[in-house]
Structure formats: structure tokens, C-alpha cells
Amino acid sequence: MSEWAELALRVGPGDGLVARHGEAVLVLVGIAAGQRRVAEELLDMTAEAAAVGGDLGRRLSRQVAGVIAREEPEAVPSFCLMAPASTGTAVVVHGDAEVDFDRLTANRTRGNPLLILFTGKHHVTVTARVAAVSPVGAVHVDSVQFDGVEVPRIALEYFANRYLQPKFGNAAGLDSTFPLRAHIATVIVGADKITITQR
């Protein structure tokens, strides 16, 4: 019996859906009417892959990446998919947010000329892969879309290296690593944040 088979899933109240098929867990958050078809495809894909077995995390990650690439950004609901992989745990996180740059940059544009360029509210979509091979977790940002337009990778790297890493260290890059303890006790996905509690 694998370590995944012994995991317990506790779901709290909220706007979303949690599905567990064998050792694969899919969490869909706030599914809009125009996202139901893709949500159902993700659910079916997870169930079918779990029934086949094998390197579940690797196969599902690739299939889900294909769905994200094929669909329009607004058609894909925010989700998190977790499954065991041959090298640890495969996690795919896809979500979007509306960013209010006026609120975010209030009284902060001095010393950072890029912030003057961003005003108003904009729709931002980030697609990232997360992997955990004890004792290290890793996050790889695949893409960032700004109002439906993909931001060139070189611009993302410049922004991360110039503005995020000096303030937050290597945990704030496009390819980040962080230490993991032996066990994750809880993962709480909220409207504004994700909280991971480790034991």
C-alpha cells in the first residue's frame, strides 16, 4: 500500500469541488458557467488516468497542460491537481486573479519606474507546476497571461530577478525551490491565498 493510499482528505465549506480518484486529487475552485465543460473534462481525465495507474502524476500533468494550452484562459477554472509520480508528488496549479494595480502600487511607484506603467484592474492568469521530492519542493512557472496576452518569459525573468528576488530571495522566482519537512499536515485553498501547514 502506498503512502498516498493512507492519506485522509478533509474538505471544509466553500465554493468548489474536490474529487479523489484512487491516488489522484483534483480541487476545482469557483466553477463559472462557461467553465463547466473543461471542469468535466478534467474530472473525467483524472478518473480515467487513475483507473489505468502507472506513473499517474507525470501522465496527468502532461494531459492537463494540454487542456490549458488548448483552451481560452476564461474557459479553464482555477484548480489544483495532485498525484504521486515516480520522483515524488506531481502538482499542477492553475488559477487566475484580478489585480488592482492602483491599490497594489499606492504610494509605491517611487524608485520603481515599471509600476507607473500599470494602472487599473487587470485579469492575470498564472500556470505553474509544483513538485515535491523530500526534502525539497519546487515551483516552475510555465506562463503568465495579462488580460489574455502571454507575457514573454524574458520579461517575467527580468521582473522576478530585479524586483522579487532581492526582497523575497530564491523562493520568488520562476523556478523556485524551498525546504519541505517530512509531512504536510494541511493545505487550505482560500479566495486570496493558499496556506500549507507542515509537521
Low-confidence stretches: none
Which secondary-structure class do the elements indicate?
alpha+beta
E-strand count: 10
Radius of gyration: 18 Å
Strand content: 35-45%
Round the mean pLDDT to the nearest integer and report it: 78
Could you describe the largest sheet, including whether it forms a barrel?
8 strands, antiparallel
Helical region count?
5
Distance between the termini: 22 Å
- The coarse overall form would be globular
Integer count of domains: 1
Question: Which sequence of SSEs, written as H and E, runs from N to C?
Answer: EEHHEEHHEEEHEEE
Q: Give the % helix.
A: 25-40%
Task: Spell out the key features of this protein.
single chain; 199 residues; alpha+beta; eight-stranded antiparallel beta sheet; two-stranded antiparallel sheet; 38% strand
